[in-house]
Amino acid sequence: MPELEPRPGDLSSCLRDWSGPTPLLVRSGGTSSRSRDPVLWSLDLRTHCRELQLSDDGHRVRVGAGVTMAELQRHLAPAGRSIPTGLSGLPGAGYLLTGGISPLSRSQGLAIDRILALEGVWGDGEPLVLTAEQSTSADGHASDAWRGLLGAAPFLAVVSAIELRTTPRQPLQIARALVSPDQLAEWIQRAETWPDGLSLQWFWSERIEILLVAIEVDAPSVQAWAACQPQLARLPGAVVERIDGLEALPPFGALARCPLQRAPVAQEVLGLLAPAWGAATPALIQVARQAMAQRPDPGCALASQQLGGATARVPATATSFVHRQAIWKPWITAAWPAADPAARQRSLAWLLQLRDQLRPHCPGVHLAQLHDHLPWHGWELKAAFGDWLPGLRRLKAQHDRHRLLPGL
Ligand SMILES: Cc1cc2nc3c(=O)[nH]c(=O)nc-3n(C[C@H](O)[C@H](O)[C@H](O)COP(=O)(O)OP(=O)(O)OC[C@H]3O[C@@H](n4cnc5c(N)ncnc54)[C@H](O)[C@@H]3O)c2cc1C
Which atom of ligand 1 is nearest to the CA of 92? Predict the structure, then answer.
């Protein structure tokens, strides 16, 4: 697991002079399988890319790539500001650069929709300093470079710092409970009618956990939230609470998982994107039910986040997150005991089988975890970027000529 800990100022010479094996990996939060590798080198940004600067009015924050989302929210909270972070505070810049789907995305957009400026180096070592202002025309048309970096940066550049637009931190009402597969199908269908200030997340492993997140001051969501309470109250394990902001979300999936007493696991995660499932939901859940009954490892799981609203109001051509009409982001986790190749094979085969079964209802991919080391990387790129993939490949040929970064 060889690692370098470059300072932002060293990144350019590091990439220009690189003669080691490729791809060169990058580690920001270090939460994904592709941030490190037994034989490939990683640029670990956690040591020296640690800036955190809030503007005087609190409306902009400059964040180093090695800062976690929990650290960022902790910095913003005393000023009453926030950004739409995800279900965990552990990820770093990887979350911000690959889309960034939050329980508040339906009202506040994706994390990439908050990016005001990016700093770092392209794959060929050329310094990169881009701002939204300079990169977007008056009619809202983004330059190819800007569009490429918002959602596909890991293939093109090493980003050392990001400037983000913040918004007021909002108190939230949250509810967690356990449901049966049939009840899950009902909650999914109900959630497809909700206002933007209310979202449904679910996590299915040993049991099925649902997590509802509502913005407290948003009148339509308060009304929809109130309508959910009678059903919620009847569910086992139901906990309803108020939290001050996203950073206080409880660990997602904790109710659904059995605590495992065993050696460390390895895992790969595939994120899909789907339109509203509507009347197809019960059949889809039936497929999932069969797959979950055949999980090869207790760490294997199926989960989902809800999109829509603000995420759909950004044009598909503005960023590399092209599936703007998606309503659901289901993700499949394949897990196995580390250093057990046969178990790895079984779990990855299970993941692919479930992917194929879900695919008619989940045509897109959210490339939050890279799989350039797996045979389905080519399929995944097409499903993630669609018609924009040739444009990204042109950018790669221009800015990462020696293909130091993961293949596109
Ligand atoms: C517990 C948990 C909860 C999550 N919840 C959500 C969620 O709610 N919503 C959501 O959208 N996603 C979620 N994710 C997925 C997560 O956002 C992505 O996997 C993200 O890429 C991880 O960020 P990271 O900083 O840890 O990246 P790393 O694991 O460090 O790197 C991920 C990839 O991005 C590349 N990369 C990382 N940093 C840079 C950089 N600075 N410049 C260029 N390339 C870079 C690396 O090459 C690597 O392949 C979750 C992940 C975990 C582990």
Answer: 25
Rounded to 10 degrees, the C-alpha dihedral 360/361/363/369 comes to -120
Q: Rounded to the nearest whole angstrom, what is the distance from the C-alpha of residue 124 to the centroid of ligand 1? A: 22
* Distance (Å, whole) CA 227 – CA 390: 47
**Residue bearing the CA closest to ligand 1, atom 13:** 86
Domain boundary among 169, 198, 227: 169
| Gap from CA of 359 to ligand 1 centroid (Å) | 23
Cα separation, 236 vs 116, in Å, equals: 44
Pocket test for ligand 1, best of 26, 33, 268 (most atoms within 8 A of CB): 26
CB 149 within 8 Å of CB 99: no
* Inside any domain, residue 403: no
What is the residue range of 334's domain?
260-397
CATH number, domain with residue 350: 3.40.462.20
Write out the two tokens for 298.
């207790």
Give the residue-averaged pLDDT of 148-172. 98
Is residue 124 pLDDT above 80, yes or no? yes
Distance 385 CA to ligand 1 centre (A): 18
pLDDT over 90 percentage in the chain:
93
Residues having CB closer than 6 A to ligand 1 are: 25-32, 34-35, 45, 65, 86-88, 90-95, 97-101, 153-154, 157-159, 305, 368-370
Q: Give the confidence band of 261 by pLDDT, cuts at 50, 70, 90.
A: low
Same domain membership, residue 211 and residue 249? yes
Does residue 130 lie within any of the structural domains?
Answer: yes
Backbone dihedral angles phi then psi of residue 241, each to the nearest 5 degrees: -150, 165
348, part of any domain: yes
How close is the Cα of 377 to the center of ligand 1, in Å?
A: 17
